[in-house]
Amino acid sequence: MALQGILVVELAGLAPGPFCAMVLADFGARVVRVERPGSHYDVSRLGRGKRSLALDLKQPRGAAVLRRLCARSDVLLEPFRSGVMEKLQLGPEILQRDNPRLIYARLTGFGQSGSFSRLAGHDINYLALSGVLSKIGRNGENPYAPLNLLADFAGGGLMCVLGIMMALFERTRSGKGQVIDANMVEGTAYLSSFLWKTQKSSLWEAPRGQNILDGGAPFYTTYRTADGEFMAVGAVEPQFYELLIKGLGLKSDELPNQMSMDDWPEMKKKFAAVFAKKTKAEWCQIFDGTDACVTPVLTLEEVVHHDHSKERGSFITNEEQSMSPRPAPLLSNTPAIPSFKRDPFVGEHTEEILDEFGFSREEIDQLKSDKIIESNKVKASL
Amino acid sequence: MALQGILVVELAGLAPGPFCAMVLADFGARVVRVERPGSHYDVSRLGRGKRSLALDLKQPRGAAVLRRLCARSDVLLEPFRSGVMEKLQLGPEILQRDNPRLIYARLTGFGQSGSFSRLAGHDINYLALSGVLSKIGRNGENPYAPLNLLADFAGGGLMCVLGIMMALFERTRSGKGQVIDANMVEGTAYLSSFLWKTQKSSLWEAPRGQNILDGGAPFYTTYRTADGEFMAVGAVEPQFYELLIKGLGELTLLKMQQEAVSCQARQTLLSVKRPSLQPKSWGTVWL
């Protein structure tokens, strides 16, 4: 696999860090997730392919354990607010003095500096501060955050993976690690560069919710079907729009010009009335296999059974019969091989990991009896 | 810079490919954008750091020019529907025979195979086919695509950069290139793995638009201000919620937090097993 032999230490946090580390694990890295003793379970649910070590970082001897792990690792991924690691004597100067090859990835909401850098926040806040949230939402409604996908996962976790990969690649030349300031405000903004680059163009000339891409256009939106389901329409180009009109059983010469924005509200009502007459399955019969850019809005359950995903094997099942998306993208020679096993219990691999990293049996026993570490090798049901 | 000396050939297309190539250029790669003669301007607007070559690939001699470029390049990024490059005699078998180190990145909506792979589509279609669109949108309204950010840029362009970086890193060990099938349906689904992983949890127990993260909770949404502007509220944890209430000057609202949204859902999000437990396990995180 692409990341064979790469050792990652992930300090447990919410969504972005766990996702970042899961991607690395999917592509072959050995990931150790460090959790607080007493944690009941991995709330992130993104523990695939990882091993779990329960360690109290707040105790100096616990911090010292982490220092020994990082001395032999390739990547440290920490999600804490600026200054927290430094307080624990685990900042980059110290850890990279021990190990100049260490890639020290710091994944936060607001970043390592700046007036907001020590404040709490969540996806919606980072999305708001990035400027991007102000562009998302229907006409006449408040801006709407698309779950926690844009800041937590795209501008956060995924952008951090990118930074780590850049640093890993660069290290093959320089032999040195780096410190990565991956933060969700900047990551989300950078991801959305297109918005700034097209800000003065006609793409955004109307108020929020009245443009082509933000719900204004009748040919770029979703419609409800007769059975309460939904179809997605994305027929921007004239030749695709023609096929849309045809499939709807309408006549283009009886309709206003596609790009006549003043007529869009009326067109939306017209299209909605047509879509409401048939079921999702019936619309799929009409539009599947055409270039009309009309697709069903599949639910999470439906998508795993849809022909296209089935043919491609886009979804994987693990030993607990849970289905989730196969890692992307597909690499021809060294594809990701996501673990088939269930996610680890907290502290399930504490002893095995410490042993691998050169801790003696006596050291491990002492750390355990002093409650610096926790070992849950055999876990009763929660 | 991280990608010093890396040579990328980008075949012009819309949003995802140009963004992918721009990221590579930003981090130091030398990017050549190949555009059709007669194109008026780079509609992607994401040409930062690139150089532009106008070339007619449909002509055999044009295709031969591209072949020569790829023989000396590290990455080829092409956005065409499955089969198009093969028709131009520019498929991976040919180009990687010339140059076994070439990383051949294919960035499309539906992928290189499957019943939809030869169809046209846009961000909203890929988002719809991934399953993710079905979760986004207010209570009582149709699902709503957040511009073209999720499929075009996150699950598409950015995910493709990831694949290219994986391949570049792997090549430092194997000396060989790879073919990357980066498609927006799968990229967007993978990005959103969290949704599948928490599907059975209380995080999504209510219908769309009535959960904590999709607009159901009063403490995780936006509000309009007196001047027609907006504030974003994301106060999930009890101690942050208290500060929100304090700031709003409405202490009695504190009681409503138990009824406003399922307690179970919030517990799932925060790993607090009993309401009376102090969430001190998050003390370190929120220092």
Automatic annotation (TrEMBL), chain A:
* Pfam families per the UniProt record, alphabetical: CoA_transf_3
Keywords in alphabetical order: Isomerase
Q: Which GO terms describe its molecular function?
A: alpha-methylacyl-CoA racemase activity
Q: In which pathway does it act?
A: Lipid metabolism; fatty acid metabolism; Lipid metabolism; bile acid biosynthesis
Under the cellular component aspect of Gene Ontology, which terms does the record hold?
mitochondrion
Q: Name one GO biological process term.
A: bile acid metabolic process
Reactions that this protein is recorded to catalyse: (25R)-3alpha,7alpha,12alpha-trihydroxy-5beta-cholestan-26-oyl-CoA = (25S)-3alpha,7alpha,12alpha-trihydroxy-5beta-cholestan-26-oyl-CoA; (2R,6)-dimethylheptanoyl-CoA = (2S,6)-dimethylheptanoyl-CoA; a (2S)-2-methylacyl-CoA = a (2R)-2-methylacyl-CoA
Protein role = Catalyzes the interconversion of (R)- and (S)-stereoisomers of alpha-methyl-branched-chain fatty acyl-CoA esters. Acts only on coenzyme A thioesters, not on free fatty acids, and accepts as substrates a wide range of alpha-methylacyl-CoAs, including pristanoyl-CoA, trihydroxycoprostanoyl-CoA (an intermediate in bile acid synthesis), and arylpropionic acids like the anti-inflammatory drug ibuprofen (2-(4-isobutylphenyl)propionic acid) but neither 3-methyl-branched nor linear-chain acyl-CoAs.
Q: What is this protein called?
A: Alpha-methylacyl-CoA racemase
Automatic annotation (TrEMBL), chain B:
Q: Which GO terms describe its biological process?
A: bile acid metabolic process
User: SUPFAM superfamilies of this UniProt entry?
Assistant: CoA-transferase family III (CaiB/BaiF)
Q: Name one Pfam family in it.
A: CoA_transf_3
Q: Which residues form a coiled coil?
A: none
Provide any one GO MF term from the record.
Answer: alpha-methylacyl-CoA racemase activity
The protein depicted here goes by the name: Alpha-methylacyl-CoA racemase
The record's listing under InterPro entries reads: CoA-transferase_III, CoA-Trfase_fam_III, CoA-Trfase_III_dom3_sf, CoA-Trfase_III_dom_1_sf
| GO CC term, one of those recorded | mitochondrion
The lineage's top-level taxon is: Eukaryota
Q: Which family does it belong to?
A: Belongs to the CoA-transferase III family.
